[in-house]
């Protein structure tokens, strides 16, 4: 990267964060600390009021702003893709804000780049499977506009009240929670929060909430939240679970896709016969129904209870579709 490009990018980073350390900047641009010190002095010489606080890092004074930065065609295209993904994989509260931001970006593009972006807009699309809420499936009992509100509560450390639907026992409960993090996994957004009703950390699917309200009361976060550590089992497990091992023969495992995560997938082991998937699941009957369509392409290795559940389901299906055969008497 040329120095002028690095100085421009450095200034953009300074505008994007309240404080940033010299080491972060050095790592970001793959240069030495001495180079960063020289670059900061160059910005100061150009009239940029870069502040420095010992032990914390560099910052720009409150209220200091530069005119809009010009975007390259590749950057604008990447943001367009982001907008398409946000539209389908967030909720109704986030989409309009992202589109508004994209409109501001379009406004500073060169005329030729605007035309190219408009053509891309017509030719690029993102579709969600119907099973995961594609085409913004309407569920009147589950409003679809809480992500922005939850982000605000999370950043301001505000307590949240909500009605939550448990698919396990088909009941609604009123919860008061202290937000810890927002994660997307298993085809849905999840709020990780301390639940005052259960007096423990819980994982709430955002698409099972309604009547959500952010309270004036604030809370003090107990510790920093690391999403990567949370998603490393068994940290993300909040219910009693059972360990499961299932052999998927040949290349059958590839057909499990994202669905494996809904059943507590932890890891896989490749063996000559296929792929052994390991799970920690809280609901074996549901998992048995998921596995049944794989037929003889899987083998349950543990636990025995899961195998017995599959056998019961197989007999139920056989009884429904294959009535008992009437054996004709043998003529002598």
Automatic annotation (TrEMBL):
Keyword check for Methyltransferase: no
GO molecular function: DNA binding; DNA-binding transcription factor activity
Location of the HTH deoR-type domain: 3-58
Keywords: DNA-binding, Transcription, Transcription regulation
Key word Iron-sulfur present: no
Protein name: Predicted DNA-binding transcriptional regulator YafY, contains an HTH and WYL domains
Species this chain originates from: Catalinimonas alkaloidigena
């Amino acid at each position: 990267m040329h120095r002028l490009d690095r100085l421009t990018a450095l200034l953009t980073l300074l505008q994007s964060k309240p404080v940033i350390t010299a080491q972060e900047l050095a790592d970001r641009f793959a240069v030495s600390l001495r180079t960063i010190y020289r670059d900061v002095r160059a910005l100061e010489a150009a009239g940029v009021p870069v502040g420095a606080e010992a032990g914390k890092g560099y910052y720009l004074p409150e209220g200091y702003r530069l005119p809009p930065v010009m975007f390259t065609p590749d950057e604008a295209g990447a943001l367009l893709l982001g907008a398409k993904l946000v539209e389908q994989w967030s909720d109704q509260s986030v989409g309009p804000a992202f589109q508004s931001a994209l409109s501001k970006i379009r406004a500073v593009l060169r005329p030729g780049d605007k035309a190219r972006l408009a053509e891309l807009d017509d030719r690029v699309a993102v579709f969600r499977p119907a099973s995961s809420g594609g085409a913004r499936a309407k569920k009147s009992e589950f409003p679809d506009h809480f992500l922005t509100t939850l982000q605000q509560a999370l950043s301001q450390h505000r307590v949240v009240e909500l009605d939550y639907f448990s698919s396990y026992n088909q009941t609604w409960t009123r919860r008061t929670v202290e937000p810890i993090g927002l994660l997307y996994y298993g085809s849905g957004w999840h709020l990780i929060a301390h639940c005052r009703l259960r007096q423990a950390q819980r994982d709430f699917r955002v698409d099972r909430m309604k009547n959500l309200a952010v309270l004036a009361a604030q809370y003090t976060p107990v510790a920093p939240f690391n999403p990567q550590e949370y998603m490393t089992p068994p940290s993300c497990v909040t219910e009693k679970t059972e360990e499961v091992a299932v052999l998927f023969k040949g290349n059958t495992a590839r057909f499990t896709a994202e669905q494996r995560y809904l059943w507590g997938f932890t890891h896989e082991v490749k063996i000559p016969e296929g792929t052994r998937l390991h799970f920690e699941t809280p609901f074996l009957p549901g998992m048995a129904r998921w596995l049944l369509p794989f037929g003889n392409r899987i083998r349950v290795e543990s636990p025995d209870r899961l195998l017995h559940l599959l056998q019961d389901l197989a007999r139920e299906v056989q009884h429904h579709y294959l009535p008992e055969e009437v054996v004709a008497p043998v003529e002598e």
